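Hi X.,

You mentioned you wanted examples for the new student's onboarding notes, showing what a folding record looks like when two proteins sit in one file. Here is a clean example. The first protein comes first, with its sequence line followed by its structure tokens.
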Amino acid sequence: MFSTLASGVHSLVDCNPTSDSFRADVQEGLNREDKHIPSKYLYDERGSALFDKICELDAYYPTRTEKQIMRTYESEIATAVGAHAAILEYGSGSSEKTHLLLQALESPAAYVPIDISKEHLMAAAERIADSFPNLPVMPVCADYTARVPMPVQKEAYRRALAYYPGSTIGNFLPERAVSFLAQMRAQVGEGGGILIGVDLKKDPDRLRHAYNDPKGVTAAFNKNLLRRINKELGADFNLDAFKHEARWVSEEGRIEMHLVSTRAQAVRIVDETISFEEGESICTEYSHKYTIEGFTALARQAGLGINATWTDADSLFSIHYATPTNGVVSDS
């Protein structure tokens, strides 16, 4: 017997991701020999909205392919997850794939969207609540790369499901991906599961095209990071003096997004000056691509076994359902 939760959007659990960590990570990253800023900072309110536009582009195959997989195998996915699950989504996004999942599941107990952008998070929570009026929606504003609180009482659900759609697991270096998978494993517990999207290795030209779209939306998304640094940290980046570039690094099996300085310049940020040579870049995102076997091995290192895998006909993308390897998953 499960306790009853009120439907609709519940009070926000605000973990107050602060600008202090943003400032520290930006300054540390720009002082490295190979300049790098963590990709999570691409997703302020404007960045999140731009990424939603990227997902609609013809050049960007992952989103439509993942949605196609979910529609094709929705009954199998629902059976794997089981009834009365509490869904924790890491990065709430535009909610389209979430809508497909919740529509397929049997009597989901609660939906917990987790996002670092409060405005984007609350908009996503409202959209889901409007579409599923009987579903408790419990938003959490947090940096989900750290352990986040579980706002749903254990008595209200049968199992916790961590939902991580898209190809975002590819943003982590492999060793960090293992740590994050282990963190999700701990979050859902021994009886829980993880439903995760993973982009697959393919023709590098197709990858380059997907991350260098001809409409320039990805470039705007990438350069918005500089706009955010200017706004929140008082920097003086000239956005016109940087260009977007996506590179395929074959030895690492990943796309890298860079902001490349078009000339020698100096940028003032907080209390220091950062110098750039012409052609020097800031790496803003990794996007690792995997084989099915490679991701299965990665998950195993995190104490997870892959129970089921679904792909499209062209093997562009994959969705995996994983559970802890040393626990028994039961619907009883």
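Then the second protein repeats the pattern, sequence line and then tokens:
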Amino acid sequence: MEGAEGSGFDLAHLPYGVVLVDGRPTPAVRIGDQALDLRACHEAGMLPEGAWTTVGFLDQFVAGGGDLWARTRATVTQILTAARPADLPPMAVVALRDLPPPLLPFTVADYVDFYSSIHHATNVGRIFRPDADPLLPNWRHLPVGYHGRSATVVVDGTDVVRPAGQLGLGDDGTVRVGPSERLDIELELGFVVGGTPNPAGVPLTMDEARQRLFGVVLLNDWSARDIQAWEYRPLGPFLGKSFQTSIGAWITPLAALAEAAVEPPSQDPPVAPHLRGDRRGGLDLNLWVELQPAGSPEAATVSRVNAADLYWTATQQLVHLASNGAVVRSGELFGSGTISGPDRGTEGSLLELTVGGSQPLDLAGHQRTYLEDGDTVTLRGTAPTAGGGRLTLASVTGTVRPAPVLSG
């Protein structure tokens, strides 16, 4: 396909998404700046087990499991490699510029967010507990997480409305209520789970969990730090997190990340036996955060980090999620938690970048500790492919809008 090579969306990538074709949600594969209409390919008899393509979203495909994913990827690669334009069904390839923005590609069955970066957890611990060990005793033994809200997972380009709520006690001892004053971002990876659900009461093994991982998206788990700080003791994050989580519009298949697979950091002390054995579970992904302040014509890159040193792998996170016998359905999404590195400029949240708001960022004359209305945040990332190339993870962007009024 013309323009695909070197675009980050070439034959080595082939991410899945959902676009509107003639007003109908249509499953598609992105190739360069074009979309291959999988419904049209199915109707032309070109896809294996193509009944799922008659459904607008990717739910049935994600549920189909590894064999279907592998066959479809191989067939799409063959179509795009061997076919001349005349061999494709009419209008099977559509320029993305001629379509509305892509839709949320699948129905999010459930959402969990983890806390898997040792550097992030250490940074946050030092900010909130400066006189104590930054890591709590359980952190090196299990992937700490919280249960989010699937209904507030949204696709790239969706504005984020500043949440309002309880901000803590004022000087007079009464609770302060109003718009969050510490709206933050979290640079994360999101993992899409597919395949057949495990029976209730039956945990997943490492191999089973690995086979259930369909693909990866960039994920921004927007956070209201002041609401979170007031509410999270003793039960953890709730309204400070549940108002919105944004993901990229195109799911990168895990199969496209074979060249990015690396050995994760060693875990000390050794983890429990059921969490061992993910020797190539790390992902060598370059990630960065761009922030465009309201009124500024340009965005500034405020953080760059690599995901390879996440302490807990995606497979370990999924095994832990089901280790008590909880059912993990197809279409579930879980986040890695904020990804931060050991050095300044590698932090994946404003909380860390500004050291709890004490060291503002200077963005071409715009001072920022936390986000202001009108600010736009974009997460980006790339991964290595065979032959020295790189694929581009679908970016995720959101612009902050003013908070609603809480009234009686």
